[in-house]
Amino acid sequence: MPAFDSIASQLENQAIELPSWAFGNSGTRFKVFSTPGTPRTIQEKISDAAQVNEFTGLAPKVALHIPWDKVDDYAALRRFAGDLGLALGTVNSNTFQDDAYKFGSLTHTDAAVRQKAIDHHFECIEIMHQTGSTDLKIWLADGTNYPGQGDIRGRQDRLAESLTTIYARLGDDHRLVLEYKFFEPAFYHTDVPDWGTSYAQVTALGEKASVCLDTGHHAPGTNIEFIVAQLLRLGKLGSFDFNSRFYADDDLIVGAADPFQLFRILYEVVRGGGYGPDSTVAFMLDQCHNVEDKIPGQIRSVLNVQEMTARALLVDAPALLAAQNAGDVLGANGILMDAFYTDVRPHLAAWRESRGLAGDPMAAYAASGYQARIATERVGGHQAGWGA
Amino acid sequence: MPAFDSIASQLENQAIELPSWAFGNSGTRFKVFSTPGTPRTIQEKISDAAQVNEFTGLAPKVALHIPWDKVDDYAALRRFAGDLGLALGTVNSNTFQDDAYKFGSLTHTDAAVRQKAIDHHFECIEIMHQTGSTDLKIWLADGTNYPGQGDIRGRQDRLAESLTTIYARLGDDHRLVLEYKFFEPAFYHTDVPDWGTSYAQVTALGEKASVCLDTGHHAPGTNIEFIVAQLLRLGKLGSFDFNSRFYADDDLIVGAADPFQLFRILYEVVRGGGYGPDSTVAFMLDQCHNVEDKIPGQIRSVLNVQEMTARALLVDAPALLAAQNAGDVLGANGILMDAFYTDVRPHLAAWRESRGLAGDPMAAYAASGYQARIATERVGGHQAGWGA
Amino acid sequence: MPAFDSIASQLENQAIELPSWAFGNSGTRFKVFSTPGTPRTIQEKISDAAQVNEFTGLAPKVALHIPWDKVDDYAALRRFAGDLGLALGTVNSNTFQDDAYKFGSLTHTDAAVRQKAIDHHFECIEIMHQTGSTDLKIWLADGTNYPGQGDIRGRQDRLAESLTTIYARLGDDHRLVLEYKFFEPAFYHTDVPDWGTSYAQVTALGEKASVCLDTGHHAPGTNIEFIVAQLLRLGKLGSFDFNSRFYADDDLIVGAADPFQLFRILYEVVRGGGYGPDSTVAFMLDQCHNVEDKIPGQIRSVLNVQEMTARALLVDAPALLAAQNAGDVLGANGILMDAFYTDVRPHLAAWRESRGLAGDPMAAYAASGYQARIATERVGGHQAGWGA
Amino acid sequence: MPAFDSIASQLENQAIELPSWAFGNSGTRFKVFSTPGTPRTIQEKISDAAQVNEFTGLAPKVALHIPWDKVDDYAALRRFAGDLGLALGTVNSNTFQDDAYKFGSLTHTDAAVRQKAIDHHFECIEIMHQTGSTDLKIWLADGTNYPGQGDIRGRQDRLAESLTTIYARLGDDHRLVLEYKFFEPAFYHTDVPDWGTSYAQVTALGEKASVCLDTGHHAPGTNIEFIVAQLLRLGKLGSFDFNSRFYADDDLIVGAADPFQLFRILYEVVRGGGYGPDSTVAFMLDQCHNVEDKIPGQIRSVLNVQEMTARALLVDAPALLAAQNAGDVLGANGILMDAFYTDVRPHLAAWRESRGLAGDPMAAYAASGYQARIATERVGGHQAGWGA
Questions:
Q1: What does pTM read for this prediction?
Q2: Interface test with D, best of B184, B198, B226 (most D CBs within 10 A)
Q3: Tell me, what's the ipTM?
Q4: CA distance, residue C335 to nearest chain A CA (Å)
Q5: Residues of chain A neighbouring B145 (CB-CB closer than 8 A)
Q6: Which residue from B157, B277, D28, D129 puts its CA 20 to 30 A from A224's CA?
Q7: Which GO terms describe its biological process (chains A, B, C, D) (predicted)?
């Protein structure tokens, strides 16, 4: 197995994008718990995100969600973030919270509703020009709850038409990433349920469109790393939404439910050329900290990605290939497991310290007093959450 | 196969309990859509429930959810319902919407939180005395999202202790039914995840405790009718929460996702003695009409249960047993399918008409003008939903 | 809803292909039970298949599995089948039972093993020329059991190369259909696990390649009719392998586990132009009659497909579209369910009799004495099964 | 976190029982691959098992499967094993490979078939007296493939009756462990599908009966460690069948598919008192080495159990409890993960060497030449597998 030192340099440019909404309240249909210190504004969300980057050096970008993060002056917001060492990243559209979208948005039977949803994406693109964002991420809640409620085929055709219109509006440096999701909030069918659908749709659009893979959006038993390998092979893996799940779209901390799966995913990313300075794959988090503290929840998440990336880089690739070619099942598996079972945490702590960062970011954040300060300062106002 | 006439009399006493909350708004974590005419009060919910019973003759009871349906004068509420031909049914407790319950209720590590949850159940029992309800239904959101977050074993012991305290407070005619649920809102573990846990807990309590089976609360692939048969055999099937699902706890209209499964469930109910005047099994609905109209959604639901009950009663039981004993796989399956594929709807329409009911309750309700009237009248106020 | 008579003519040309191997023994890894009368030769399999067609008028083709059904003289076999009113259909290749394929066939790291598997397909194509078959169906057992055992990406590239070589050998009238399967016999990853992979591979091949959808080869909760609609939209649905399943690839009688799902699938087939004289979608069965009698098992299967096709044709499409466009969830669902709940069996019996067929094919076959005759006659020899 | 040295002594008495059938050939319904050196006799299986114990010091017992391992002289077999340092362990009955059991064994409608199956268990008990085994393990293939095929309720009653008869024949030191399985080889329903059924059945039998938990026998998403905790709490966890799975009952090497799950299971074992000299929980493997070498497959398996046991013992229990009580979600989770991410392999290697064992058992076995020797010597005869 390679020594940690030999792979350390590959960790240098790792950058994970944080979702602004992870710092607001979230929950289930049963209850959204509020917490002292929760941001009331996008500026407070960005301030919290800056903490994650300060203690880890891993998170230089914040993704926006429109309209939750709408402001009057995006140039000012960009400067605000920049002053904290952050860039504004992916712009996420929202076509699921307006009453008009009850029966669909880009797929709706009513052309006026479709146009409203298209216009929303035009607005997002306009914001991207101002924020300097390159990626427009589309996740659709479109779907139906009952067989017969909608015309599956017609909806797919309308989706293609709507996406084509949006795609045409993209700026030269822009990308469109289309996220798929197996179920929820629609229960019978979703209009972009699987990577195949997203792939077919973005392929029809053109080179600036690719697939967003959210690790929580698959049926039970799905081999996600296979999809990673396949999309990289097809040149259509645009971005990740990292999180983890035990059953549904739980949106738990990435790596929390199945760390070995995260390792395998990152191994295929590395194997397939999706990691490193030449790759255009964007790494984002998409998580809901329903019961745990949000800032340390994000810190824990980016560390998990870093730790598993390090393990993936440690795989002895030539030895693995030799064992695979020899039909040595246990040997090949053992080479992979060697990397997974290696405790990279002490190495990473030392590496962090060598770069002027805290060896233990979780402890350093806890000791910083930031959490107590925001709990004291952020009194009154409306805590941010889904819908605000 | 028996003629419809020979089983018609068995349909006479069918009674399905409606959940008061089905008439309020519901949705997903992404969005709760509101609808014109949605009730603002428990009285309006009961009025809507009365419509379901008026057009179907199948739904003479309404289940309450505390605190959503709290009133000052339960005797008055009972009279209000009675005047509309309805009785007040199961009282459902709620230990998932108070901030205190973020980390559990009856299982919480803090004795004060447990006592608060126990006191809530004492209040529910007090309400039952006033409403004439016999069943206290406990569904717990208790659980954890992350491995290590809670002590699974200790939580189970505390659950047993809390339930014992509540059980001791039940009135002579009261029952406690303990619902299990595979996942949601907790994602890593729920404290009553399966029928085995509910069975073990209620068996330890005593004869007045039994299991509530919600048809949407199982892992994929679970054979629910087996559990029905087993619980009836063990004398511990207390009640049903009927609904249907494609993937998770979708809470769709019962029979909508898999009508054949509903048929098989009702066949095992009949087979095991869970149907008819001598049975104590309570049939309730627990559904969320997120996108469809609520009153006709409930009408459709009780009709679905009735139609599948009729089909289950039509199974030629002696012929089925003979085929089973003969090892005639296709013959036995064919006898069951004969009943399932029989279109009982014309028979039921005629039967309804013979009893002074509309032959087509869906059409009759639509023609009644009730929906337009409540849409006009129920202006202002706060539409009922989860949490109010 | 349309009257049955108005759709009856559309049933006339329905043709379902039977798999030769359905008449041989099958089972699980735990046990393969044998049965009196099981065929010993491909001729006996074809004779049994002819019974299915004789009693239903629905099954004029038999699919072959190579090498299980290899003969010296395919022209003679074609005449043998023709004399019984049958044509020889799809040729199924087998790259999972030779010791050489332990670690893969078309994806193997060893070029010699890949060539062996390619040569096998060349042989299949040669047989197709002799049998008059048009479809070459490729289902691969290729995959791995342990992470690291194989290189997912490299295997996919080799698959593409192998398929390209096979594709180039197809005759002018030939098609290649590539089947996907979620899991089994490989457990960690399969090389063609989902429709997306099959679609990406066959799209790269060309117009003569399309996807084979086996209804039992999906993850739990997958909406199969969506895939049907999508593949029809993309022009890449080549054929079906019909069967049903409760959990895994159970290969039960089609429609047995979830008749409503079969209905929904056939509705999307009709909706998307996959049914009728202009469609090139092939309807095949792929089932294992482990515990039930095989010939009546096949009769039951083709009848199930016919009955659900009739129901799908009965859907009032204009009314459905109107309800969908109006956002009438319950109305639209009700229109679909009306067709599903209609008991088409008496209509189909009368229709069959009008065409000189038995009204009740199951009873007619049972009364024919064929089963007793083959049980008596087929003594000695080696009963056919997987592997022979 | 405790130092490794402080938990090392608790590893001393760990003993994992090997299944004799793991050394024979196994596979899927598609193919069973044979391998040079595969045992032809139970003596050769035991010799192979002795290798696992020799290199790991962890596997002093071999479980037998009757009739696969039947011999004329069990006393001689016991001495044979003893001479190799092994004891004979659990006796596994087989009621799935005789033609008589096509429609059930202990649940069959025919009393004669039930008696045949009961007599088989009597024979197993007789063998236990001779081999010194204490555990009779019953796993049933009983179930049905089609709704209606069998009477679920009646089968359960007959199961109870049959088990009662078998239980009455147990010797004073004997135990009966009843294994449950979600699906396969029956597809529609299995007669002991879940822990609740096994628990209800063994509770009715008495103190000598308990549940066997096979880690591969659950629905997707099932929290297995919860069941472990619950059964330990109820005093009814008799034994484990360890293996791992990605989707169905894959019977892969334990810990291979989800090492974190294995860790969580072993943590609950330790937490609930299921580990150590006072526990009666038996640890067995039940795996199928379809594509990997069998002896090193077993070595890898027992090492995986040992490594995860060490990690589970390393959990800082007081700190964990404190964090749980404080509602510190991330803190509690972090304490658990600290133990999981600790690389115990170097510690275990040193510990092994201190006890005269090879530090790297996989490498030591590979270097021993045993595999080459058996490949050379074991020529001719009939390789052992399921069914022989």
A1: 0.98
A2: B226
A3: 0.97
A4: 8
A5: 250, 252, 290-292
A6: D28
A7: L-lyxose metabolic process; rhamnose catabolic process
